[in-house]
TrEMBL record:
Localization: Endoplasmic reticulum; Secreted
UniProt record similarity statement: Belongs to the AGR family.
CDD domains per record: AGR
Protein name: Anterior gradient protein 2
Domain of life of the native organism: Eukaryota
PANTHER family registered for this protein in UniProt: ANTERIOR GRADIENT PROTEIN 2 HOMOLOG, ANTERIOR GRADIENT PROTEIN-RELATED
Alphabetized UniProt keyword annotations: Endoplasmic reticulum, Secreted, Signal
Presence of keyword Secreted: yes
Source species taxonomy: Eukaryota, Metazoa, Chordata, Craniata, Vertebrata
Gene: AGR2
Keyword Endoplasmic reticulum (UniProt): yes
SUPFAM superfamilies the record matches: Thioredoxin-like
Gene3D superfamilies: Glutaredoxin (3.40.30.10)
Length: 178
């Protein structure tokens, strides 16, 4: 009788330990950061915290060149370090594995903390945060915008699903039009 009770207790302990391990695995996989297929990359200062594992272009001209030569759409992100809206969007943006994965695999990315002289990148004014898409033919996709009529390319923390949808749209337009 004692050996049966001892075996039952051991079995229950093992089940409890396995349950704890399983819970820890599930938790760690849900909070894990996206890691590119090519493995963990050394963080770049060009990311400015928007996606340290992504490869960011240094200038608009470089981004356009990469976009054209790799036949990938470009996403240009305007923000300011001291803007609370930019900071809030950066936190949600950088922690969203789906955004990070899509950008890593399918986009050229550039983030700017200053305005460019290219007026095409400010079709409705200069404000932050602002996200625009440019296709490899160097056409700014003014038709891919956010939900605000007074700031057509603005995204807020609650607009992440719209941003992902617009990223998918930029990819589809690329394949359909080029």
């Amino acid at each position: 009788l004692r050996s049966d009770q001892s075996e039952t207790r051991t079995s229950l302990r093992m089940k409890a330990v396995l349950s704890v391990v399983l819970v820890l695995v599930v938790i760690s996989s849900t909070i894990a950061k996206y890691i590119p297929k090519s493995g963990k990359r050394i963080p770049q200062t060009l990311s400015r915290g928007w996606g340290d594992q992504l490869i960011w272009a240094q200038t608009y001209e470089e981004a356009l060149y990469w976009s054209r030569s790799r036949n990938k759409p470009l996403m240009v992100l305007f923000h300011l370090e001291d803007c609370p809206h930019s900071q809030a969007l950066k936190k949600v943006f950088s922690e969203n594995n789906e955004i990070q994965k899509i950008l890593d695999e399918d986009f050229i990315v550039l983030n700017l903390v200053y305005e460019t002289t290219d007026k095409h990148l400010s079709p409705d004014g200069q404000y932050v945060p602002r996200i625009l898409f440019v296709d490899p033919s160097m056409t700014v996709r003014a038709d891919i915008n956010g939900r605000y009529s007074n700031r057509m390319y603005a995204y807020e923390t609650g607009d992440i699903n719209l941003l992902i949808s617009n990223m998918q749209k930029a990819k589809k337009l690329l394949k359909a039009e080029l």
